[in-house]
Design brief:
By secondary structure, the protein is mainly beta. It has 2 helices and 46 strands.
Length: about 675
């Protein structure tokens, strides 16, 4: 049975970070344009007879053509052709032989009829004698590479004049819907002391908007483009010209891709990549405007990032799909749908060093990744396709309950100081787990309330079948542990496996304020749930599809506060000083911990003068919830509870667990205050 792939709900989750060095460049341009051209059919005409031009007649003139291109004399993969097309006549194709060392000649003479003529020079990558502009891909899954077609060319049109010298500039252009006259021109200059760069020099363009993101940077409008400016490196300052771009505002970075990952991943003081030379334009940040119909001038002076060690320490390896996956057999299941992540975890323990390798699918594999700046030692490496979009390594069938079915691991990788260790190719394989499991994914956005009522609560999703059957699943254990924001909201991704009959369900997501696992609005019950999202706010919740192997994307789910008043609940603590403690003691404080994380500490009694008699403190208003209450003598006077494991602990204390709710909104717990830490 062929299982369906991922389906989208009300929102389309796009690519977050990274860039494609080849596949998808044209498609990325299409996304930024108003319309896209149909794919051009590949040329299949036979190779014309090459050689000197035919006799053009007694009126023929000779022009001197200077071939100036941005490769700076470097060799390229394909012969150089020159097409001579008179206004009235038949085109002549000339095969331009390479000079010494395989470089192109700087100039050559061409015989043509007098009058208007068009000269076209191009690198005939497929050696078919035709200028084949790279076709526009039919879809984002069309893995065409911009550098595999005749995308290095130049055209001069004018009047053939005896003895004239014309300059024919050859440029590298992208496949895409942009106008040929719209693009960039400029020069890349290596740093002093590093005039020769052998690795490819790439240019990354990130389309940005006018609205600034929270960190002050311009907000991206779409995925970055990566242009192979100089695939064979550069020798000294080298000019370039790139056409067929889409007008707009871009952030630009040129870099030598020394680590071969296609991304600007510089080495530096901390964890980074293996790229030693890069430059941004403009240098001080911001964006450059690529205007329609003209070539915007830019320049890049490559420099080495600060803190880049002479000998890098880390790992450099190739990541590839296992042969049984590389053929695309898993594509119908959506198992390869998702960005590729890399996690590095020190075997000695501690927080993982995690970074995105690609913001793309596995169709971009194999590719190399380099991580430098790692401390010497033994590391564990995990690489996975994040099928459920939670940015965490959650293998399907594991205890974590994730959906990531394609992954690879290295358990003991020894990093040696001053070396980029290469453990060989890491193959991603298919996990042995139930691939028929259905799932829902998405992201949460939850507002928070101040005080005890805002203590962390589970976020749940209730699914109701057409027959009225209800299923409840947990999306987040504690909403306060999601990522925070300045406006008090919490947000984060979720993914949940489902074992329910196939069908369409009505969903409601909610903050489970009463922790009962079922949605009851606080508008109907003051002690009920205080925030929710229904199909009215998230249309995808109106028809949640559950099918074997289907990963249904609900998109972003904002939980909206229902605007209910906080129920009137609280505690009035009674304290009895044990006869094991000599009065007077004071001050006596109340330490409050709600199960979801809310903490408070208040003065309960200034002093207790007698033993074995109850003394009541003032009523303490709270909110519905489950609390651990600790009454203690603040013997060190620091205004907080120091348990028995602390230095200078509060040795006289008593503790009770209570629940405030509809059944018990007001409680009067009694605490027997005495020695609490023994010894």
């Amino acid at each position: 049975m062929q299982r369906p792939g991922r389906q989208k709900g009300s929102s389309q989750r796009g690519l977050t970070v990274g860039a494609l060095a080849g596949r998808g460049l044209a498609w990325a341009l299409c996304l930024a344009a108003a319309a896209c051209a149909d794919p051009a059919p590949p040329a299949s005409a036979p190779l014309p007879e090459l050689g000197p031009p035919v006799d053009a007649g007694p009126g023929a003139v000779t022009l001197t053509v200077q071939l100036i291109d941005q490769l700076g004399g470097a060799t390229v993969n394909g012969p150089l052709r020159l097409r001579v097309l008179p206004q009235a006549g038949v085109a002549t194709l000339i095969d331009v032989p390479p000079g010494p060392g395989g470089a192109w000649p700087e100039a050559l003479s061409v015989t043509a009829p007098p009058g208007p003529v068009q000269l076209t020079a191009f690198v005939d990558r497929d050696a078919d004698g035709l200028l084949d502009g790279c076709p526009f891909p039919a879809s984002p899954d069309d893995a065409l590479r911009a550098d595999s077609y005749d995308n290095l060319s130049g055209v001069w049109s004018g009047v053939a004049v005896e003895g004239a010298a014309v300059q024919l500039v050859m440029e590298r252009s992208l496949c895409g819907p942009g106008e040929p006259g719209t693009g960039l021109t400029g020069v890349v200059t290596p740093a002093e002391g590093a005039p020769i760069l052998d690795a490819p020099v790439l240019l990354r363009l990130l389309p940005v908007g006018d609205v600034e993101a929270e960190d002050g940077a311009s907000a991206p409008l779409g995925p970055p483009l990566v242009l192979p400016l100089f695939p064979n490196g550069i020798t000294g300052a080298t000019p370039f010209s790139v056409g067929a771009l889409v007008p707009g505002r871009y952030q630009l970075v040129a870099y030598e891709d020394a680590d071969g990952d296609g991304l600007p991943t510089p080495c530096g003081d901390g964890v980074g990549g293996g790229d030693r030379w890069l430059a941004r334009y403009p240098e001080g940040g911001g964006a450059v405007v690529i205007a329609p119909g003209r070539r915007t001038e830019v320049s890049f002076a490559l420099a080495q990032p600060a803190g880049c060690a002479e000998a890098l320490t880390g790992v450099s390896m190739e990541i590839a799909l296992a042969p049984d996956l590389a053929g695309g057999a898993a594509e119908p299941d959506g198992l390869l749908d998702g960005p590729l992540w890399l996690a590095l975890i020190p075997s000695s323990g501690g927080s993982p060093v995690t970074r995105v390798v690609l913001a793309a699918t596995a169709a971009d594999l194999p590719r190399r990744v380099t991580v430098s700046g790692l401390p010497e030692g033994v590391w564990r490496v995990a690489v996975w396709i994040d099928r459920d979009g939670d940015e965490q390594y959650g293998p399907c069938g594991g205890l974590a309950g994730g959906l990531d079915a394609v992954s690879g691991r290295i358990d003991d990788l020894r990093i040696v100081d001053g070396r980029l260790v290469d453990p060989g190719a890491l193959q991603l394989t298919l996990s042995d787990c139930d691939l028929d499991t259905a799932a829902v994914v998405g992201s949460l956005r939850v507002g928070t309330e101040p005080g005890a009522v805002g203590s962390g609560r589970p976020v749940r999703l209730d699914l109701v079948s057409p027959q009225g059957e209800r299923l409840s699943v947990q999306l987040a254990e504690n909403h306060q542990r999601l990522d925070g924001a300045d406006n008090g909201t919490r947000s984060g991704p979720f993914s949940v496996s489902l074992d329910v009959p196939a069908g369409s369900y009505l969903g409601v997501a909610y903050l489970d304020s009463d922790r009962d696992g079922a949605f009851v609005s606080c508008a109907l019950d003051p002690f009920g749930d205080r925030a929710a999202a229904t199909a009215a706010e998230v249309p995808a919740l109106g028809a949640v599809r559950i099918e074997p192997g289907l990963v249904f994307d609900l998109g972003e789910i904002p939980l909206v506060a229902l605007g209910c008043a906080v129920p009137d609940t609280g505690v009035t603590a009674e304290v009895i000083l044990s006869g094991d403690v000599a009065p007077p003691i004071g001050p006596v404080r109340l330490h409050i911990e709600e199960q979801g994380g809310f903490v408070d500490d208040v003065l309960l009694l200034a002093a207790i003068e007698v033993v074995d008699q109850p003394v009541s403190g003032a009523r303490r208003p709270l909110a519905p919830g489950r609390y651990r209450l600790t009454v203690y003598a603040d013997t060190n006077g620091n205004g907080r509870y120091d348990d028995c494991d602390s230095e200078g602990f509060d040795a006289i204390a008593a503790r009770l667990d209570v629940t405030l709710g509809a059944m018990d909104p007001m409680l009067t717990p009694r605490f027997l205050l005495g020695p609490a830490c023994g010894g």
